[in-house]
Specification:
4-stranded antiparallel sheet; 2 domains; about 15% strand; alpha+beta; 7-stranded antiparallel sheet; 18 strands
Amino acid sequence: MDFDPTPFNFAAAGINWLLIVGVCLGLMTVVSLLVMAGSRGTRGLTMWTDEVGLMASDLVSLSPRRIFALSQLTFREAIRRRALLVFVVFGILFMFAGWFLSASTLAPEFQVKVYVTFVLRAISWLILPVVLLLSCWGLPEDIKQRSLHTVVTKPARRLEIVLGRMFGFAFVGTIVLVVMAVVGGFWIKRQLPAVAQEQLTCRKPVFGYLAFKDREGNDAAKGINVGDIWEFHSYIEGATKARAIWTFINLDASVLDSDGNLRLENRFQAFRSHKGDMKRALYYQYVLVNPQTGLRVPIPLKTVNEFRGRTDIIPRKLGKVAEASPAAADEAETAAAYDLIDDLVSKEAVVDPETKNVIYPAGTMLVEVLCIDPGQYLGMARPDLFIRTPDLSFWVGYVKAVLGIEMMLILVVVLSVTASTFVKGPVATLLTFCLVIIGQTAREFMAKIVNNEEAGGGVFESIYRLVKHMNPTTDLPEGTATTVMRFVDSALVNLMWLVYNIIPDFSFFTRSLSYLSNGFDVNVATAVYPGLAITLGYFIPCVLLGYFCLRTRELEAK
């Protein structure tokens, strides 16, 4: 789950889409011209021009009525082919799933994660093979049985046939998806243990920026490493001037809950350098700081929940508390001395007097975290503390997650129908299946190759190193052979760049699952908009490619 999502940039994506489509269209144009000119000479060029004119005429004379009729026909054919039998498998799976998912020993949040992940995975894994097979075998079967011959003799254009197939199969998949999603939602609600029901929510976090101070109170890039190989978490030493400081910006009263309280949720880790009293949890303390006025307000001590985390409720009206005092939890004054929003959130930006750069923008509050116990350590990373704004209903995030599966379903239908316009059913199925698998598993590896991040060079350089038993960091001998080898590898990398951008990134469609299963609201900027842009971006060129292939295909060739 991305705790610091970058908003989807439609402008940059649009420019990249135009570049890729333009390159592919240019390559197709050059290849088709060469083929026609090489086979039929000048007459072939004339035929190519006439064909382009007819295709442009079909594009501007589409009939929504005929497209709807063809979609309706596709839907009826899918029903006759017993596509809805998937509900039988779905029902059997859910009837017996409770036997294997009952885990009362797990913490409530982990129980929610198990059940939500199972439902969404089951829906996507069952529905995608159904639409894949229907879409890939529809047109080839119609051509084989000569039922498509009747359609093409009518006023229906082949572009309308492609669109009708795509819309029809997508509608079938949508009906199946909606039924599965509704049943899956009720199943989660009924099967989830009562103790975990309150964890069935969508939290809306506000993450800050993390900085550290060492045991002497000086600024530090990170905290102490207590011996972990994974350095994601840093630790601060107890009973010293060490601090972990989170900077939260753009704060106002909207971050408070319905009772006017600020909720800080943390996942701090405790590291004990000596045993001490193992029955007593370690203490930590918040200090809220206004960076503009320098006002510091300590909060009464809290205890670390070492395995599950906790949510601390901080009232808007704060009293005076002694900072870092072990008895501070009992010394809080009842009189409200400070207002959390009015006194602790900066009203103006804080500017460096020398460089005139903005250090803290308006609406900033600092949250310092101290470890109280001497000789003990408190570990944290940036996402381990966030402001928990008012929660949304679980079903809001559930609908967003199902919407991600719906967009993936539509994209699979579009790719499958396009593949079925120029190859037979088995080949179209294999081709689309490979695109889905590569788009889900191999994108990261392809990105490293395209960006020259893989050690050892390209294809031929890697082969040369294997033959010569050279490690990836050894420099190759200078010479003509090395220059030619690297030139060829560079050309192959450019070809890989085109392939990398043509294969869709299916990981965007499953990002909503990680948000929802961890109890967070699905971030629209990173989990919905990218999937929508990918689906629309592939729909237009795939429709045109499918139309071109179906128009030039010999229907008598079964």
